Amino acid sequence: MTGMPDRLNRCVDCGKPIKPPSQRCRVHAAAAARRVMEWLRESGERRLQTAGEVETAILRLGLRLATEFASPVDARPRAAFFRVNEDTVIPVIELSGGKWVRGRSFPLAEHPDFAEIVATGKPRANVVRSRPLGPKVREIAARAGVSAGAGVPIARGGSLQWILAIGLRGRELPDELFRTLIDLGQLLEFALADSAAWGSMRDPSRPTI
Ligand SMILES: [Zn+2]
User: Fold this and answer.
1) d(CA 10, ligand 1 centre) in Å
2) Which residue range(s) make up the domain with 26?
3) Stated pTM of the model
4) Based on the structure, what is the number of domains in the chain?
5) Angstrom distances, CA of residue 5 to CA of 2, 8, 136, 179
6) How much distance in Å is there from the Cα of 190 to the middle of ligand 1?
7) In the beta sheet, which residues pair with residue 205?
8) What is the DSSP string of the chain?
9) Is residue 124 in some structural domain?
10) Is residue 2 a part of any domain in this protein?
11) What CATH number corresponds to the domain at position 173?
């Protein structure tokens, strides 16, 4: 199993030393999050009015980017956001082979690495084969053809809200891809933290229904 890259990082934009797993200092991560919102608005996401619509658009964009980053390793990667409710892991939104699919819930105890992400708040990679999975998770992974992967925690208000997960065929998820996913997770975390504020910025030219 691979944990976080165990070295001092520097902000990719300004070179300021930062703790792993971050790739950017807070200033530049926030700037990156604003870029996410600009991409959303430019990519035709014009219906974004409520905080919920903004949040869903950010989650969908996150999965599109995660699968794009993973596509050199696996042409048909699987990416999902999960929520953890008490002891149950619930898929919120899932992208598989370029299609939005509905995933299944499973007990947190059946997925030791997700349990560790919840306990530590730290990302993990190469989760699928590294430890025994419970029967339901094993069946889900087998059916999806997933044999390697990573999970990145996404917090809001200081507590874990989502796990960004990517599943691949093959033996392992490369470290470079893992670092990219951690970076993406941080960017999404900032964007999602701001989504309520973005959602309240309504276009005054639109009629109110
Ligand atoms: Zn910086």
Assistant:
1) 8
2) 9-199
3) 0.77
4) 1
5) 8, 9, 30, 8
6) 14
7) none
8) -B-S--S-EE-TTT--EE-TT-SS-HHHHHHHHHHHHHHHHHTT-TT--SHHHHHHHHHHHHHHHHHHHHTTT-SS-EEEEEEEETTEEEEEEEEETTEEE----EEGGG-HHHHHHHHH---EES-TTTSPPPHHHHHHHHHHT--EEEEEEEEETTEEEEEEEEEESSS---HHHHHHHHHHHHHHHHHHHTHHHHHT---TTSPP-
9) yes
10) no
11) 3.30.450.40
Amino acid at 157: G
pLDDT digits (tens, 9 = 90+) for 61-98: 899 999 999 999 898 899 999 999 989 999 999 999 88
Asked if residue 68 is part of any domain, the answer here is yes
* Residue tagged 């809200």 (tokens): 161
Cα–Cα distance for residue pair 144/185, rounded to 1 Å:
23
Q: Does residue 207 lie in a domain region?
A: no
Ligand 1 center to 107 CA (angstroms): 39
